């Protein structure tokens, strides 16, 4: 759109300029109500970006919990990827899920655990501070941090 310029204090192309051009060209302009103003916020610095990212992760965690996942502290859970899970799963604080992770039924994930690109079977207990990457943990396994810090 050649009618829009980045000649402003932020040196950015602004959405409000698009509205001005549309109105000038005879297009009808309308409004919309939003339920959550953070959904339309932009980020102009690192703090604002991190704030928006935190909001996104909390929404994601809320959705998982509404699907039946028990997360002890939603503000200290992070999912960066895809999580499939069964029933009766309990996830303690400071757990990071990365890549594609599948957790079977009746599993307990301890605090400060990292699980990446792995499949966790039914009835598995993972002790705190364990790190599991690219693994298939069989049903009924008790992952002890001292015995199995799998990073293969």
Describe what is shown at a glance.
This protein has 152 residues and is of the alpha/beta class. The chain is 20% helix and 25% strand.
Write the layout of secondary structure elements.
Elements: H1 15-24, H2 46-66, E1 70-71, E2 77-85, E3 90-91, E4 95-103, E5 108-109, E6 114-116, E7 119-120, E8 125-126, E9 131-133, E10 136-137, E11 142-143
Parallel strand pairs: 1-3, 2-4, 3-5, 4-6, 4-7, 5-8, 6-9, 7-10, 8-11
Give a written overview of the molecule.
- This protein has 152 residues and is an alpha/beta fold.
- 20% of the residues lie in helices and 25% in strands.
- It contains two helices and eleven strands.
- It has helices at 15-24, 46-66, and strands spanning 70-71, 77-85, 90-91, 95-103, 108-109, 114-116, 119-120, 125-126, 131-133, 136-137, 142-143.
- Strands 2, 4, 6, 7, 9 and 10 form a six-stranded parallel sheet that branches. The protein has a five-stranded parallel sheet with strand order 1-3-5-8-11, with helices on one face.
- The radius of gyration is 22 Å and the shape is elongated.
- It starts with 14 loop residues before the first helix and ends in a 9-residue tail after the last strand.
- 15% of the residues are buried.
- The model has no long low-confidence stretch (mean pLDDT 90).
H/E element order: HHEEEEEEEEEEE
| Main beta sheet strand tally, sense and closure | 6 strands, parallel
Provide the β-strand percentage band: 25-35%
Radius of gyration, taken over Cα atoms and rounded to an integer in Å: 22 Å
- Number of DSSP strand runs: 11
Distance between the termini: 50 Å
């Amino acid at each position: 759109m050649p009618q829009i310029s980045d000649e402003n204090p932020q040196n950015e192309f602004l959405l409000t300029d698009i509205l001005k051009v549309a109105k000038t060209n005879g297009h009808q302009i309308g409004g919309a109500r939003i339920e959550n103003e953070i959904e339309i916020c932009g980020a102009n610095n690192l703090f604002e970006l991190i704030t928006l990212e935190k909001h996104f992760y909390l929404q994601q965690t809320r959705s998982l919990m509404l699907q039946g996942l028990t997360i002890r502290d939603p503000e200290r859970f992070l999912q960066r990827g895809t999580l499939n899970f069964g029933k009766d799963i309990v996830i303690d604080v400071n757990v990071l899920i990365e890549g594609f992770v599948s957790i079977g039924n009746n599993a307990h994930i301890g605090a400060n655990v990292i699980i990446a690109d792995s499949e966790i079977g039914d009835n598995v207990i993972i002790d705190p501070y364990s790190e599991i990457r690219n693994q298939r943990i069989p049903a009924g396994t008790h992952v002890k941090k001292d015995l199995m810090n799998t990073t293969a």
